[in-house]
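If you are new to this repository, start here. Below is one unmodified record pulled from the training split, so you can see the exact layout before writing a loader.
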Amino acid sequence: QIRVFIQRWTFEGDALPKAERKFFQLGMQKTTSRNAVLIFVAPREQKYAVVGDVGVHEKCGKEFWKKLVIDMREHFKKQDFNRAIILAVSEVGKLLAAHFPRTGDTINELPDEIVQE
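And here is the target side for that same chain:
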């Protein structure tokens, strides 16, 4: 369960607290397996954060998140925000597929569209 949120307006401070609030505002903590991940990108501020629910954290550990953030940073330095998002979706998708494989009765609990504000 991956969602992408693009923050269009500017803000002060770190992106992680904003991303955590947005995670809950979007109701992402309500998935059955607690396996939702929000990729939060603020291109104007050149900031980003990735927030995973408790079920994901139990499976992947801190090293996954550290590596993902470092890899995304390389694209942000080049202002290639699209590539950063694609990378994050791909890596998180692989993680979720490995630990939360789809079954015949799996339903998509969250909307697929990118949210922009």
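Two things worth knowing about this chain: The CA atoms of residues 54 and 97 lie 16 Å apart. The chain has a mean pLDDT of 93.
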